[in-house]
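Limitations

Structures in this collection are predictions, not experimental determinations, and the ligand pose is part of the prediction. Treat each record accordingly. The example that follows, with flavin-adenine dinucleotide as the small molecule, is included so readers can see exactly what is and is not provided: the inputs are given verbatim, and the output is the predicted complex.
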Amino acid sequence: ARAHVVVVGGGFAGATAAKFIRCYDPTIDVTLIEPKSAYITCPASNWTLAGLLKPARLQVDYRALVDDYQVRLIGDRVAAIDADRRKLVLADGDSLRYDRLVLAPGIDFDWQAIAGYDAEMAERFPHAWQAGPQTELLIRQIQAMPDGGRVLICAPPDPYRCPPGPYERASLIAFWLKQYKPRAKVVILDPKPSFSKQKLFESGWRRHFGYGTPAASIEWLSIANNPVVRLEAAGRAVVTDFGDRFTGDVLNIIPPQRAGRIAAQAGLTDGGGWCPVDPWTSRSRFNEFIHVIGDAADYAPIPKSAFAANSEAKVCARAVVDLLKGRPPPEPHWLNTCYSLIAPDHGISVAMVYRLNAGRIAPVPGAGGVSADSPAAAALEAGYAVAAYRNLRKDSFE
Ligand code: FAD
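Predicted complex:
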């Protein structure tokens, strides 16, 4: 009989895995299970806040995976995994057997972390950390805000999806405000003492937004060890552990994160809420027939990014094919690149190559770094950021 691989979740991780398993070995049947008929990319979603891209342009469908790679698509949600029987149950009640399962459900939010903030409240105070209606709600709120108003971004604690994301978001909101509401500003409330690409962001903020001066339109407040613990919806305020209170005309609250719910339900998460894996094969530490990739899995120090998810998916696809054929998978390497725009003509990036060192994932010395801090480099990087987004989409979904 032909081997059957089921991939759960059609984000960057799952789509890439489905495609590359079919590319590496077309004799293997691949079924992708994803409830949404169109996927909306988080990458580039911050660009829509500055009006650089229409939200509709973030959509990508699964037609190429189905038509060009013969991936079988099921438009449903996985309700349960019966790991002992290697069986899945779908929300509509159907069940499905697998030889190997690739789990890529992305993130879930920790709704316990901030009292008064839950999925329902997110309809009033968007996180916009899963792109789509949430992103559009944030755009509308910023557009409706008075000039002189304040956008408060509550950044999440580590580890979370897209480490530079909150800071790119602050930059592009500030860029939009500068043109349409020049007296307004963005305040980032951060439970971390430092953040990704901080020097480059701060340098860009000085150049574009008067950062560090009384006229600054971006402010970064580190509230390390004093995280936001409560939302006061009526006063549009958040309150920290020590009782400090911060208000905003628009509140963008990005809660702490963990692996997508199905991973925890299936007993594949650890105390930190993420899925531990054997990096060489991407197999779950808790089940040898289930591979976990993308944001849901713990590949630290590789950050949770779409680029990394794509790279983890390729390593996984190769391991799945080799294990099904009884061959040892080759030694893996992973790549990550995170581009951010500070303004349309100002890009910055961080890149790294990773490999195993004594069984643990480690950066390859000298193989990465951040982009140069100069106007010429920033202009080039802005072009690369757009190209990188297009390439990543194409490589994952087409
Ligand atoms: P997801 O993209 O979340 O996909 C998971 C999929 O699984 C979803 O489609 C979901 O519907 C499905 N799913 C969940 N549960 C089930 C279930 N039970 N049954 C079936 N399906 C299920 N990364 C970059 O590399 N570059 C960037 O520029 C960048 N910018 C970003 C900007 C923002 C504002 C944000 C929030 C993120 C950004 N990222 C960026 C990070 C990137 O979005 C994530 O790292 C990436 O989406 C992870 O892919 P994934 O496949 O693991 O998860």
